[in-house]
Specification:
Layout (H helix, E strand, L loop, with lengths): L2 E4 L9 H16 L3 E6 L9 H13 L9 E2 L5 H12 L3 E4 L3 H6 L4 H4 L8 E5 L6 E4 L3 E4 L6 E5 L7 H11 L4 E5 L6 H10 L6 E5 L2 E3 L3 E2 L9 H4 L2 H11 L12 H10 L11 E3 L1
Parallel strand pairs: 1-2, 2-3, 9-10, 11-13
Antiparallel strand pairs: 4-5, 5-8, 6-7, 11-12
Helix pairs in contact: 1-9, 1-10, 3-6, 6-7
The structure holds glutamic acid.
The site of glutamic acid (GLU) has 7 residues, from loops.
Amino acid sequence: MYCGRFAPTPSGRLHLGSLLSAAGAYLRALQAGGRCLLRLEDLDRPRCKAEYAGSIIADLKTLGFAFPEPVLIQSTDLDPYAQAVETLIHSGQAFVCACSRRAIREHPCTCRELHLPYKRGRAIRLQCSAALRDFTDERLGRIHVPLIPDSLILKRSDGIYSYNLACVVDDLRQGVTEVVRGSDLIASTPLQIYLYELLGAKAPRFLHLPLITARGGGKLSKQNHAAPILSRYQPSEAILLVLKLLGQDTRGLEGVTPAEIWPQAAQRFDLNAIARHDIEID
Ligand code: GLU
């Protein structure tokens, strides 16, 4: 059965870009007769706040999404990430690294040969130069990612498990069959596919959505303070706006309640109507 997910990082309130990802993931799942899970990627404690996690969950509810309970909140159980890192160390793929970020920029890291013991202040990295640079996107077709790093952080020197590791571990244990997310994560996809392979698992399908950019100003994100979507729009207005940005036919959906828009929009959801490039807005 189809299983999708929406996996926001609670480092700010829900904005237009994240709503677009949520909409894409949710519609795809509804259309396939499957489910779409919600996961809060809050491992980067310094960037995340409990109040944002609460507001994202509340805003999604107001916007008519019905995600299955319980919601996976990454920070509540670190064991699965620790186990995956253990597995990768045992198989010789991951290694303890004592280099600072600066040192890595200046000369290649040779820690893999040193078999250093783990201690706080040291990172755990994965050798990933053997990762393939190509993958197939369900919407965009074959994608080539030109630059792949030699190694990928699994656990940072401050003890925080990395996004790539946690994302793969969770998509795997949650049984996700298709990952729908923004195109800003395209560069991570080959690395994640490689991680699945090393963990002896089959990677899900991937579908990347266009990014929303401010005219003349780059990607909208929580970092550049894209406005919280519900501070600017009524819930139904916000939903119609993202459906239009996704190129979807919204005729007859005006005046429909948020919870009822989604199933109706899913019935007519047309993947081919979504732009193949970033979407510029004023
Ligand atoms: N947590 C990531 C973000 O908010 C998304 C990760 C993903 O969908 O794989 O940008």
